[in-house]
Amino acid sequence: MKKLFLLATLFMVSTLFAQQATNTLEGVFTTKAKDELYNPFKFDGKGKVTINEFGEDGYEFFERNDSVVIFVEKTVFIFKKEKNQLKGISDWVDKKVYKSNLKSLENKPQTDSKLAQRANWMAQNYDINFKNNATFLFDLDENSLIQKLKENEAANAKLCKEGFDESCKVVFAYKFAEESGGVFETLNAADELKLKPNKELEQLAQRVIDLGNPDGYGLFYTYYYFTGEKEKAEQFLQKGLDLGSPYCNEISINSAMSEFGESLQSEIENSEDKK
């Protein structure tokens, strides 16, 4: 079960342009709704937004046309701009309204070249890996789906080569699936899966680290866990946790849940045997 949790976490990483994207929105947006978990939103004008009073590192976002897209964990929050308000139009924030004291939410170009590049990458990330993906999984036949996945992998490989860390993570997930027989085959045979050493996977995980994203340590953990080098895997996981990797934190939580479930199941079986 632990292997299945680990694979599901990896493959969720991997779940086309109008106006130039930007990420300059700055200000605090609040809702009057009581007991709202996602409140307030604090945009820093540099591509990051913290949610509620407990956010520290923040989530990435971009603006395009009249939309604001925030990347939260494995999903996106999408808002439409209207005067000085943000109106939710996606899951988790649908129909919720957040107001600010700003006079206008007009898109402003990002003057910092690195932040501008990041905004464009995040917009492409959304188009490739999030936009309409929930529908094509069900609407396409097998051959069309395989072709779509190949196109997505190629698009992510291009962004990875340009230096976009998030796309490198997606390419790692695709390559991992290819090396282990395919996404669905891999998930169905999680308990028996054994991966052979693969330099390309190692290079992709290292590239994520080199690009400044500690999630690369989580990719190394997944890789070494399935090649059978579990002690080495744990070292990478701990390094990622020490550096605040969200992916490593998710792996750690899922592993603990899996181990708890297996322990509970074992106790139930032992109890039944004694009857």
From TrEMBL:
Keywords: Signal
Signal sequence, start to end: 1-18
Keyword Signal belongs to the record: yes
Name assigned to this protein: Tetratricopeptide repeat protein
